[in-house]
Specification:
The structure holds 2 protein chains of 2 kinds.
Chain A lengths: L1 H8 L4 H23 L5 H41 L4 H46 L1
Helix pairs in contact in A: 2-3, 2-4, 3-4
Chain B lengths: L4 H10 L4 H24 L4 H12 L3 H12 L4 H5 L6 H21 L2 H5 L5 H23 L4 H6 L3 H30 L4 H49 L3
The chains are: A mainly alpha, B mainly alpha.
């Protein structure tokens, strides 16, 4: 429940971040599946998947920061329009504005951890194949 | 397709590389062959002699070819590797969903007030947007008229570079706004709230535009990279097809 509440605080950009997280997991699964198989183009496929993990992770951070910037902008516009500042509301608003940035960073961390693990495995698989070539 | 088909087929058979990398190398060799062929024609040679001379110049020893395979097997540029393989269907769908989401969100949320708080720093960001659009248009024009894969790939990283530049300019502008506001607040504590809120409004408005343009640049790169990879596959396939 607390997690859902935090998710809702992040605003609408949380939905693209969920899509990106799914893509990251899909790309990682594909890379893991390719690493288990055999075939000519599989190592190129794994390498491409590893790079794409970082691309999607980076995109998640940009979208997360975008969500925060939009949130801060809307909050400050409301403050200016009302002409009065309610400090607790500002602190809460600031905390909520950070949620999407943090979510984007979490997606990047997931992508980074998967990238590291898969790359370690990829290098282990690749070394003997290059030796054979 | 090309007067060098049989030569390229033979060379392709000697390249023990995955299809995407082999396509890339064959396209580069074909481009070199065409360049040399044109050069020898201009020197006054007949077409047959020019083609034979070009093949002779480009023909690689086993050692040179092994070196080429090694170079292409090792780590190349991140963007180069990333754009080497056409994006899978699932990722293209996800990117389409994101584009639809942001277009819909912009249509709902953006109004005159959104742009009212923009600062002067928006102009470099607008310039970057223009460059992204020009790059996209030029690349698409290259695809439509007898595309040269090598020239298309040379410009592939430009949208990513421009997107990164937009993010940097956005954060820089927000930082400068905040710095100036804090200095003014120190000298005028009574009006600190007003100064701070205006600085945050201006900084975030510019940052939002910068990040949106970075996303546009990312989507442009995604589209161009996929098309370039498919073009290289097609061209390399045509070079090596059996006549």
């Amino acid at each position: 429940m607390a997690l859902l509440r935090v998710f809702a605080e992040g605003g609408i950009v949380m939905y693209p971040l969920v899509v990106i997280l799914c893509v990251v997991l899909g790309v990682a699964c594909r890379a893991a599946w390719l690493l288990r198989g055999r075939g000519e183009g599989r190592l190129a496929g794994v390498q491409s998947s590893l790079d794409r993990l970082l691309f999607w992770g980076g995109l998640a951070v940009v979208i997360g920061i975008l969500g925060s910037a939009v949130g801060y902008h809307k909050a400050m516009a409301a403050v200016v329009a009302r002409g009065a500042v309610n400090p607790p509301a500002v602190w809460i608003g600031t905390a909520e504005g950070m949620v999407s940035t943090l979510a984007g960073l979490i997606v990047l961390i997931v992508a980074g951890v998967l990238w590291f693990g898969l790359r370690t495995r990829y290098l282990r698989v690749r070394r003997p194949e290059i030796g054979r070539a | 397709m090309s007067r060098f088909n049989s030569f390229l087929t033979r060379t392709g058979e000697r390249l023990a590389l995955p299809k995407a990398t082999r396509s890339l190398i064959l396209v580069e060799i074909a481009s070199d062959l065409e360049g040399l062929f044109q050069f020898y024609l201009e020197q006054g040679m007949s077409e047959e002699d020019a083609a034979a001379r070009a093949e002779e110049k480009v023909d690689m020893s086993d050692q040179a070819l092994a070196e080429l395979v090694r170079v292409h097997s090792e780590v190349r540029g991140w963007t180069d590797r990333l754009g080497k393989v056409a994006h899978p269907f699932g990722e293209r769908m996800a990117m389409s969903l994101l584009v639809i989401f942001f277009v819909a969100a912009a249509a709902v949320a953006v109004d005159g007030q959104t742009f009212a708080h923009l600062t002067l720093y928006i102009w470099p960001i607008v310039a970057i947007l223009v460059l992204v659009v020009v790059t996209f248009a030029r690349q698409m024009a290259r695809f439509s008229d007898r595309p040269n894969p090598r020239r298309v790939r040379e410009q592939l990283a430009t949208p990513l570079f421009l997107g990164a530049g937009s993010v940097v300019v956005g954060f820089l502008s927000a930082g400068i706004q905040l710095y100036r506001a804090l200095v003014r607040m120190a000298y005028d504590p009574a009006g600190a709230g007003r100064v701070f809120s205006r600085a945050v409004l201006g900084g975030t408005a510019t940052l939002v535009c910068a990040l949106l343009i970075a996303l546009v640049a990312g989507v442009v790169w995604f589209v161009l990279a996929g098309r370039t990879a498919r073009l290289e596959d097609t061209v390399a396939g045509a070079y090596t097809e059996v006549r």
